[in-house]
Amino acid sequence: MKDPNPKPRVTSQDVARSAGVSRATVSYVLNDAPNRRVSEATRRLVLRHAERLSYVPHASARALRRGRSNVILGLVSDFNIGYVRDEVVGALDRELTRRGYVLLIHRHDPDRDSLSDLWSLISPDVVVAMSGLPASAIDTVASAQAELIEVQELFAQHTAGEMQVDYLYKVGHQRLGYGFTNRSGIQTIAEERLAGAVARACQLGLPPIRVENVDRSDPPSFERAIDRWLGGSDPVTAVAMHNDELAAMAMMALANAGRSTDDLAVIGVDDVPFASMGITTVAVDLTIVTENIVELVVAALEGRDPEIDDARPLQLIPRQSA
Fold this sequence. Notes:
Blueprint (H helix, E strand, L loop, with lengths): L11 H8 L3 H8 L9 H13 L6 H8 L4 E6 L6 H16 L3 E6 L7 H4 L7 E4 L5 H9 L3 E4 L6 H14 L5 E5 L6 H17 L6 E4 L6 H11 L7 E4 L2 H13 L8 E6 L9 E5 L1 H17 L11 E4 L5
Parallel strand pairs: 1-2, 1-3, 3-4, 5-6, 5-7, 7-8, 8-9
Antiparallel strand pairs: 9-10
Helix pairs in contact: 1-2, 1-3, 5-12, 8-9, 10-11
């Protein structure tokens, strides 16, 4: 229940009055102001009274004084962001916390939300987009003078699709399918991976890839895709799925239909932990990716050029599914 008589917010003036010093001295101490000499005894006095009064600095005022908010805004398409992005967010949060920054995660749907509305509430120093942004949102970030880092650009997403097709072709498959997801928020990544697969199949002289839309929230969509891939006089013999989660669901749909990966080979992307139970996949080296993301953010905050590890973060991991 909301307190009908809330206590007034403690101000720096209250701290100054309690400690018997000027408000300017309190400001110098609490903001660790450079080029301001305050004795150690006075500093301890101010901090002791600030703690006793439970003084909390006003974030927007502090940001105005410092010219930065120490807030990093992470944009995700869904709070169920998946293993890879969960690992990235965790690593970024740990590193930023160690450096005195706050990572704020916001679920952003470009079709329904306007980023400009957020800027009336927060003023992030850096925006980290986990799943791509439309041009309008990119313009909004630029107009707010915040640095934008797009995670999907840290490795060529189309390369993952190319590697899937290369592997399937190498092990003898020529009639290929692709499990595409049009889930809102990851369309940029999904389209790039599909484009890579389609382009590689064309370069190899293979028949056009038979693309089917599947949705993790609609399990029957996998059963329909399986029926189409395996139907007709020239059935597909292998499918590249957008990621390991969809690959696993395709394999379960196969099992429900009384079929197996002997009838339809399956390959995913990401190498999430459960993929080790038999899913052939294009693994993403999370160490390289997360270190590069952290370096991009920290370099942006420190106003320097980032030092990025150029090592290739993708590797094909063959297993039983293909």
